[in-house]
Design brief:
alpha+beta
Length: 292
């Protein structure tokens, strides 16, 4: 087994282990970054919904107080305003969704489905939890969601949601008395839930991973080729020359040319030692010939 073969038998497994470790780390990092990107978008959309809610309460509702006496205007309800604004966004981004899922909503469209009810139950059982994230399968692919609890912290909310007798007549006329009542202060009644598709970010992460690993594969192949080339030029070729010269000397042929190795590395020292040994053998052979 040649020196180059032994060298590659050591080098290739080490590079393979390094390649595998780099592949695993890179893939995990890119996947985590993709999920972080999706979560950041969900957070931004959640903040946008919160901004719409605040704008509705602070600026829209006061302007419509007079009209509310003649008929109930859902536009004055923060949840309705945020949902409607998001529906406009959804026209161009159909895979994105926002819902103020509620266990006992006034508007039937806000009623929580099974998995949303589980999220609300989680917030109810863990009041210290500010938000919750998770993943779920949808008809359009994998989706990540961000949820934050809807907690009654403002007594004004109970005007419309405590008992039917306290609610505005115009609201009763529109929605009836069957739903949306019985809420209590500091109670978790629902959850704001933003769902963002993961497909685009995951596919971009996979494409980046493939491109990166192809580049690394080319780099690793180039390293192996260059190391083998340097091994041949700096080690194997000089050793072969010395081996051939040593064989000639051992057969009695002292006419092999001297090595002219420069430098202070081990091979240069070995070449100089070999030249001295050969000259010593030549001198010894000449002395034997003269005496004979």
């Amino acid at each position: 087994m040649g020196l180059a073969t032994k060298f590659n038998l050591i080098l290739l497994p080490i590079l393979a282990l390094g390649f595998a470790a780099l592949s695993y780390t890179t893939h995990s990092t890119l996947q985590d970054n993709a999920r972080g990107d999706v979560l950041a978008r969900a957070g931004l959309m959640m903040d946008g919904a919160a901004a719409v809610r605040s704008y509705t309460v602070e600026e829209i509702r006061p302007l419509l107080q007079l009209q509310m006496k003649r008929g109930f205007l859902p536009q004055t309800v923060p949840a309705y305003a945020a949902t409607q604004a998001f529906l406009k966004l959804q026209e161009h981004n159909p895979d994105y969704s926002y819902k103020e899922a509620t266990l006992n909503p006034t508007n039937p469209r806000d009623r929580a489905v099974d998995w949303e009810a589980d999220v609300i139950s989680l917030f109810h059982n863990h009041p210290e939890l500010p938000e919750f994230t998770g993943e779920r399968d949808t008809p359009s692919g994998r989706s990540q969601f961000l949820a934050r609890p809807i907690r009654i912290t403002n007594e004004k909310c109970l005007v419309c949601h405590s008992v039917p007798e306290a609610a505005p007549e115009t609201m009763i006329e529109r929605y009836g008395t069957a739903n949306g009542f019985g809420w209590k202060m500091n109670e978790v009644v629902g959850a704001q839930i933003v769902s963002v598709p993961m497909g685009v970010s995951i596919h971009q992460a996979e494409a980046t991973f493939r491109s990166f690993m192809m580049t690394i594969s080319v780099v690793f192949a180039a390293i192996v080729l260059l190391l083998n080339l340097f091994l041949y030029l700096l080690v194997i070729r000089p050793i072969r020359r010395m081996s051939k010269a040593a064989e000639q000397v051992s057969m009695g042929d002292l006419g092999a040319p001297d090595f002219h190795a420069s430098g202070r590395d081990e091979l240069s020292v070995l070449a100089a030692s070999f030249d001295r040994m050969r000259r010593s053998v030549e001198n010894a052979m000449q002395m034997i010939d003269e005496k004979s």
